[in-house]
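Session log. Operator J.P. requested a structure for one protein chain; no other inputs attached. Running the standard single-chain path with token output.
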Amino acid sequence: MKISAEIKARARDWWVRLDSGELNADEHAEFGRWLAADPLHRQAYDQLRELWGALEAAASRLTVPAIVKPKPVWRTWQWALPALAGGCLALWLFNPLWIMLRADFHTGFGELRDIHLSDGSIAHLNSNSALEVHIDGARRQLTLLQGEAWFEVSPDKARPFQVSAEHGKVTALGTAFNARLRDGKTEVSVTQHSVAVDLAQSGREARHTVISEGQQVVYSSESGLEQPQNIDTQTVTAWQRGKLVFENRPLGEVLAELNRYHRGYLLINDAELAQRRVNGVFRTDQPLAVLDTLETSLKLHSSRIGDYLIVLHR
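Structure written below.
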């Protein structure tokens, strides 16, 4: 019998929660009951464990220099040259100088940083992210310039805690929320209490919505303010525990995510191949190990200029 998407999602949720080490005795017992309730539950969870084992094996292989049969030089550069040009463009698009000049705090590739703000709030910055902060006696206004951050907000009714991101503004109405910039869109996910999201659209009426714990809203200048969706907050914040969770995500999106943790460029030059679907839970500190696993499991090949430029192809 085929494992449903709902069971896979539940198995992934249990895997992330168990890996966090934060489950109490009652929750461990609940997990045991869930496994015993249906053989498909055990099968879905075992598939995740096997995938994790494959990742660990790939990581160990990366620590040993491999003897690789030399490839024709032109064949390698045939793949690499267009990608190198795209990589140079990406260097400007994703890390423009103006962001670093504006940012009060930023993180490098693979770096996570906890920032204790003067009002008692904490901003947790994900890899390759940048944040501008203005907090004084009259205001608490922050701007997410790049990447992703999770905010734990200290209450202060006189000074609303507001985070601007692209063309919108998020106002905390409670304790904690996650904000992320990706592909021209902003994702706002609430992990505790609620937030208000306001989108200013040129030439159109401003949009406003309030989302509660366990919900996410996405907005952009083109698509406007989308309908709120229910989310798994453990999955959204898995990056804080050094994990990446993908469920039926296109390979192109997966590579874009891995690029946030790798000081180099992981690219794909085949639009059809970029739509191949990926499922799994991976570690953020081993992006090349994840790439190695994807290459093997999807039966792909790669052309490489060291670890700096890697192009996946058929």
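Operator note: The radius of gyration is 21 Å.
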